[in-house]
Amino acid sequence: MNTRSWLRHTFRTLHRHERGQVVFLAAGAMVVLLGFAALAIDIGFFAHTKRDLQNDADAMALAGAQEIPDPGLASSKAREWGTKNGVDIGSEVLPIEFGTTCSGASEPNTITVRLQRSQPTFLARAVGISSGTLRACATAGRFSVTGFVGAAPWGMENNCIWGHDGQVGGGDDILIGEFITLKYDADNTGEDCDAHTGNFGALAIDLTGATPCGDEPGPAEPRKYGDAICWGAITPLHIYEGPTPATSASCALDLGGCVQTEPGNVIGPTKKSVDYLFDYVSDECDEWWKIVDPLTKTLRARCNPLSEFYVGGPSIVKLIPVLNGLWDAGGSSPVPIVDFVFVVLEKPTSSSWCTGSKCDISARFVERATVPTGDRGPLHPESFITTVALVE
């Protein structure tokens, strides 16, 4: 074999070997790529399951916290809520603990729910991974409420929404979505739930004096009637705990348990302030059906001005104090608070809705205010208002 033939034979042999190596390397790379793809897809499934598991743990802890300090009822309530949400109580719920948080810290009047769930893999089975165990933990507590802030300057008489006896739980209680009047006009019908003795439902929570609202005041700046309509009052309020019947003297000893009436029809400030609300409220939260979830029949968080997730700006969702003795109060008088409710204001139907002697404010009832925005403190067994909240 001459030199030229030998070189040609050598190069052909090397070329065949290189083709075999390329195929081997390509096959190996494909396996690696498939492994990464499987990992990415299964990680997505795991993340989705983890979110669901954490939501279930949060919901169970909050449900159980409503029954604190009774651990038996709290455990049952938490498990009941888990069952409703598809949690396998037998295999997914670890022992429920009280007084200890997820991180192990000591926290009285709390319930801690731990869940675990086996998540099967899909493509990762090709590399020998058939499943993984996910875990979630939530701690919720029950607290006494020391004050509501953000109330609107209108009051409702208790026997106008809770029936003639003014007590919650009767067959004639107001229902979600029903219309109510927050502020009455001077067209007095003489009915039990209408303006009396110069009071029309307006309140002076922070300051007396009725002026229209404007841009949002500073967070610590007291508000007159108009600014309180648009931005809420800053005075902490709570259910009256003094002697009954309440008097000016007893209200003076229970600051925040009574509110002062704002006498007069206050037509100008009312109209301008309510018009301002509907001019500047977010389009996301400017109607009843956008604000109230039809399934849970509660306020959507982004439309609840008392929620950390609120979309921002003025709101037509209002926290209203429920009073006992509003129509008996003459002039500017203190009236005791017996409850709090959420309502959604109805948009006026014309530009002349508040003129002359006519200036009613209409709203739709949502729910009792069981999630206040005021300060919370240690659970007191005789507290009239308590709240539950996630701790961890």
Features of the shown structure:
392 residues; alpha+beta; seven-stranded mixed β-sheet; five-stranded antiparallel β-sheet; 7 helices; 29% helix; 21% strand
What's a concise summary of this model?
The chain is of the alpha+beta class.
The general outline is elongated
Strand proportion: 15-25%
Number of domain modules: 2
Overall pLDDT level: 80
Regions with little confidence, pLDDT below 50 for 5+ residues: none
Count of helices?
Answer: 7
From the N-terminal CA to the C-terminal CA, the straight-line distance is 84 Å
Main sheet overview: 7 strands, mixed
- Indicate the percent of residues in helices: 25-40%
Tell me the radius of gyration. Answer: 31 Å
Care to count the β-strands?
12
Break the fold down into its secondary structure elements and pairings.
Blueprint: H1 3-65, H2 71-84, H3 89-92, E1 97-100, E2 106-120, E3 131-145, E4 156-157, E5 179-183, E6 203-204, H4 225-231, H5 248-253, E7 258-261, H6 267-280, H7 288-291, E8 317-323, E9 334-345, E10 361-368, E11 376-377, E12 386-390
Parallel strand pairs: 4-8
Antiparallel strand pairs: 1-2, 2-3, 3-11, 3-12, 5-10, 6-7, 7-9, 8-9, 9-10
Describe this structure in words.
The protein is of the alpha+beta class and 392 residues long. It has two domains: 141 residues, no CATH class; 219 residues, no CATH class. The chain contains seven helices and twelve strands. The strands form two sheets. Strands 4, 5, 6, 7, 8, 9 and 10 form a seven-stranded mixed sheet that branches. Helix 1 packs across helix 2 and helix 4 packs parallel to helix 6. It is elongated. The model has no long low-confidence stretch (mean pLDDT 80).
